[in-house]
Amino acid sequence: MSESEQKLKELRNRIDTIDSKLLTLMSERADCAKSVAQVKQLEGDSFYYRPEREAQVLRSIMQNNQGPLDDEEVARLFREIMSACLALEQPIQVAYLGPEGTFTQAASIKHFGHSAVCVPMATIDEVFREVLAGAVNYGIVPVENSTEGVINHTLDSFMESPLKICGEVELRIHHHLLVSEHTRRDKISRIYSHAQSLAQCRKWLDSYYPSAERVAVNSNAEAAKRIKSEWHSAAIAGDMAAELYELEKVAEKIEDRPDNSTRFLIIGTQEALPSGQDKTSIMVSMRNQPGALHELLEPFHKGNIDLTRVETRPSNTGTWNYVFFIDFLGHVHDPKIAEVMKNVAAKASDLKILGSYPKGVL
Ligand SMILES: C=C(O[C@@H]1C=C(C(=O)O)C=C[C@H]1O)C(=O)O
Fold it and tell me: Residue limits of the ACT domain (predicted)?
């Protein structure tokens, strides 16, 4: 055996010993999670998934990490370990905006790990309905994109739903121009994608396919599926859809902005407890009078609260009433935030707290 062969053998023996220790430790951890489940069961607590605790575990792992693996990489590994441990307690079901292969599914896996059961729904409304009906434990819906702005349909669904936001997750969005093996690449005359994705690639399409017809469909995955039977069509979609429908990439990362990302919300019937770094989302109705928004935001300014987003939507109750969706840092259990909420409620015609939840970790 050469010297390098001998060295390799020694190193692999060391790795085997480490793996065996890792396995013992992971099994020990899984046993602990099972015991946690028993405690929850004894207390009659049906929420096995604890968003605030999971966020704390991931943050502390990232803080303690000394390398050589980077913080995000170790957090991703622990995300999967926790996902498997939670599945031992209770396999959780998550409804997402489908079909299979959408970015919302990718966001769900990023947030809950691979052990959660992801159930595709055809529309955002259906995601809300399934969660409310108790057919699944949680739902995940897109809410805003860094290039295209807010997803109005999601905000409108909150107006009619009693569901709570119990988490958020952000996903980098990369789009590719995809074709099937039957596509005549030099004859592409139609491009399918979701309206948001077409918009996110507008400049690229204007330069490379100025005369191709752009057809908006329900989802990117739907676009990927459609082109299978059309030799003159291409689709814009992400990696998951490309893999799932076995499509080839004609051009990669064609989004106009390199920092293109989408924020998703986790919805459920559960209220997340404080994790130490939290956000709160509220919905406020105001009569349309001069200075309404200014008046509404004053308590935040006085309380020195960091606003992270303010959106306006026309209300569905009166023609000239407005609904403001406001996100800010802090948890409603914090007395300072509770005080601000009291002051906002005094000025608004209606205030609905959509939820306090851990700030996205990954
Ligand atoms: C173990 C628990 O239950 C679940 C699993 C967790 C884990 O594996 O660390 C963390 C939070 C919960 O989603 C717990 O509540 O502590």
Answer: 281-358
User: How large is the ipTM?
Assistant: 0.98
CATH class of 3-89: mainly alpha
Q: Is 9 exposed, middle or buried (0-12, 13-18, 19+ CB in 10 A)?
A: exposed
Structure confidence by residue, pLDDT tens digits, 31-82:
999 999 999 999 998 899 999 999 999 999 999 999 999 999 999 999 999 9
**Residues, the chain:** 362
Q: Tokens standing for 75?
A: 């957090």
Q: Tell me the pTM.
A: 0.92
Helical H segments across the chain, by residue range: 3-42, 51-64, 71-89, 103-112, 124-133, 152-160, 195-200, 202-208, 220-226, 239-244, 292-302, 335-347
CATH superfamily entry for domain 271-362: ACT domain (3.30.70.260)
Between the CA of 101 and the centroid of ligand 1 the distance, in Å, is 28
DSSP 8-state symbol, 150: E
Best substitution site from 40, 53, 81 to test ligand 1's pocket, by max atoms within 8 Å of Cβ? 53
Q: Calculate Rg over the CA atoms of the chain.
A: 24
